[in-house]
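quick one, 75 residues, struct below
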Amino acid sequence: MTLDKHQIDGIGGFSEKVLPANQFEELMTNAGYSISGSAPAQGRRVKFWWIHLTFRTVESIYSEDKSIVITAYHV
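---
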């Protein structure tokens, strides 16, 4: 899965397959999301959960070094 396969409430769709973490995080925080937690993910990746006061929770999957966001979707 890649970013361009999903739409995020308050942000819309992505045209890119992956994004640098700082660019993705700026989009999320500008839309009012904040990180609520993290955990290891499959393949030595890292997952983060983003919460919002009105939008659905988002789970995002980062590369092992947390520099690239591979995918993000509502849970």
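The mean pLDDT is 96.
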